[in-house]
């Protein structure tokens, strides 16, 4: 329960994952705090965060779970034939970076089995803290603060800096153009992603003056890009996605505003890095250096 709350960031989301009611999870959280004799959860308007005592208990809980797995292997003489690593990836980095990473691992570490999941940077950072991920590919925007405010800091390594572009229909307002002034985008129809200040996703141009006119909302990149190809609006993409653009979509650089740069990085918990996790980090970095 503690691990799921840490990963989900709220009692409600944890309850949905575990199959309980929100009130049941809240009662269990209160009971756990009474047993621990300390406040473990910081209850906020935007969700729940673990306190210093909660993070400490979480580390011990993960150690206990790892010890139980090791004990089971010893008792059953079960020797793992493969090394398993759990990788989280933000949606904008997955389409090209993830396949290239898997290709590299197949050559360099054939004994390694990688499982992956997608999520936003805040969600993946929580999953790292909760122990349900070993490494994550995250993004950050200037001034490139740490992925979360918890201590100790996550260990991060820069993979690449990526410029953002606007994806627009090949025909229509922006036909045969390679750039657009930011003021021209104010009244453009935008295809956005369902996001919030706590879980940001790309969609409306980040530096747009005023609020964008959103006409379609879709989380999936393929859906957004095909909506652009159909002439239904424009959307923001990283340059790394340009090789995957469907016919009927062109990219535009935005003038009249500072460039929007996003940093792609790997993150993992501080402390010694297991060889299998290090191999994944190196494969991600190698895949990023070729983009």
Automatic annotation (TrEMBL):
One of its GO terms (molecular function) is DNA binding. GO terms for cellular component: protein-DNA complex. It comes from the Bacteria. This is LysR family transcriptional regulator. Keywords: DNA-binding, Transcription, Transcription regulation. InterPro entries: LysR_HTH_N (IPR000847), LysR_subst-bd (IPR005119), WH-like_DNA-bd_sf (IPR036388), WH_DNA-bd_sf (IPR036390). Gene3D superfamilies: Periplasmic binding protein-like II, Winged helix-like DNA-binding domain superfamily/Winged helix DNA-binding domain. PROSITE patterns: HTH_LYSR. Belongs to the LysR transcriptional regulatory family.
């Amino acid at each position: 329960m503690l691990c799921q709350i840490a990963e989900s960031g709220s009692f409600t989301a944890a309850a949905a994952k575990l199959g309980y009611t929100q009130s049941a999870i809240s009662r269990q959280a209160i009971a756990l705090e009474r047993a621990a004799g300390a406040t473990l959860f910081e209850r906020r308007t935007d969700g729940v965060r673990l306190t210093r005592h909660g993070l400490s208990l979480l580390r011990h809980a993960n150690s206990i779970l790892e010890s139980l797995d090791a004990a089971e292997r010893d008792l059953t003489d079960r020797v793992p034939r493969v090394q398993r690593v759990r990788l989280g990836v933000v949606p904008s980095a997955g389409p090209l970076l993830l396949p290239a990473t898997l290709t590299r691992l197949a050559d360099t570490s054939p004994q390694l089995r990688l499982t992956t999941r997608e999520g936003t940077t805040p969600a993946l950072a929580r999953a790292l803290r909760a122990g349900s991920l070993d490494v994550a590919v995250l993004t950050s925007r200037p001034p490139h603060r740490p992925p979360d405010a918890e201590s100790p800091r996550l260990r991060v390594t820069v993979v690449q800096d990526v410029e953002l572009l606007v994806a627009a229909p090949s025909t229509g307002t922006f036909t045969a153009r390679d750039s657009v002034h930011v003021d021209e985008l104010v009244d453009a129809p935008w295809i956005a992603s369902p996001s919030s200040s706590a879980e940001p996703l790309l969609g409306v141009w980040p530096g747009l003056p005023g609020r964008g006119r959103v006409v379609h909302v879709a989380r999936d990149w393929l859906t957004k890009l095909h909506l652009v190809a159909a002439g239904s609006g424009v959307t923001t993409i990283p340059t790394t996605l340009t090789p995957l653009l469907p016919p009927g979509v062109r990219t535009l650089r935005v003038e009249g505003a500072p460039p929007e740069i996003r940093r792609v990085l790997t993150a993992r918990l501080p402390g010694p890095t297991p060889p299998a996790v290090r191999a994944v980090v190196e494969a991600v970095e190698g895949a990023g250096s070729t983009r």
